[in-house]
Amino acid sequence: MGFSADMISKKRVVLSSNEKTPVMVALGEEEEWRRRRPWEGLNPEILALIFVRIPAEEMVSCVPLVCRPWMEVVAGPYCWQEIDVQAWCRRRNDSHAVDLVVKKLIRRSKWSVQRLSAYRMGESGFFFAANCGKCLKVLEIPMSGITDQMISKHIKPLPNLGILDISNCLKITSKGIATFGTQCKSLIHLKRNMLPIEDSKPMDDSEAKAIADTMPKLQRIELCFGGFGDSSVSEILTKCKLLTHLDIQGSWNVELEGELEGVCEKLECFQSPWSNYSDEFPESESEGDDSEEMESESE
């Protein structure tokens, strides 16, 4: 099912153009109509709780065609407390189209969005997201073209933002991260995973230090394939005293020398730079078992 940007602005009604009620009601069968369709009289908030389980593109293109009450619910703010269009964004490599959809859905929510998840968002979409104020609790915008300048220009205090995902946002640097930390005082989960690489990046501790300096309440941090080293990990552990989960897989500049590895291992969940590589080669003991088994088979 397609999900065009202007699809959201269209309103289709399954009633005749000159009647306020369906033809069946005009024939004197109103009670029967209501009996067969009791869901029409449900509270809009209850309907919204059902509709939000439907993918956003289907909620926009299909649900409004059922009846007028459903159309009104979808057109109102109840269904758009959580906006997740990532599945649709993955099929579109067009930040302009993503921005149009995000802006229209945020308008529908009357700026009461609690969660916004979208890929490849641009400046205008970010402007709308940044204006959701105290309502916004989760902002997931990986692979977006947001820059440090856009963040400084548009971001406003987001006092209740707890989860931020800016993974693979290649135009954001330590300056943008520090701005997020300054304006979002309640962050407890940061995702800043970058594109996988096989070799180490040039050493760059600036982003990790910005996180440590401006986001002290973080409990979960994902920094896969970062360019930071041991000193940054140590600083994060020192300043983010509530930290329970740390994922630094693929961050090849980290060596975990001295007591650092032991401190990391005390966390509730720790993924080292080599977590996904430790099982590629069998231990010497298992190798011996295999050789013995081969010898017994040959006999």
From TrEMBL:
Compositional bias segments (type: Acidic residues): 280-299
Q: Which residues form the signal peptide?
A: none
Renumbered to this chain, region (Disordered) spans 274-299
Check the record and name the SUPFAM superfamilies matching this protein.
F-box domain, RNI-like
Domain of life, source organism? Eukaryota
Query: Which InterPro entries is this protein grouped with?
Result: F-box-like_dom_sf, LRR_dom_sf
| UniProt protein name | F-box domain-containing protein
Could you read off the lineage of the organism from its UniProt record? Eukaryota, Viridiplantae, Streptophyta, Embryophyta, Tracheophyta
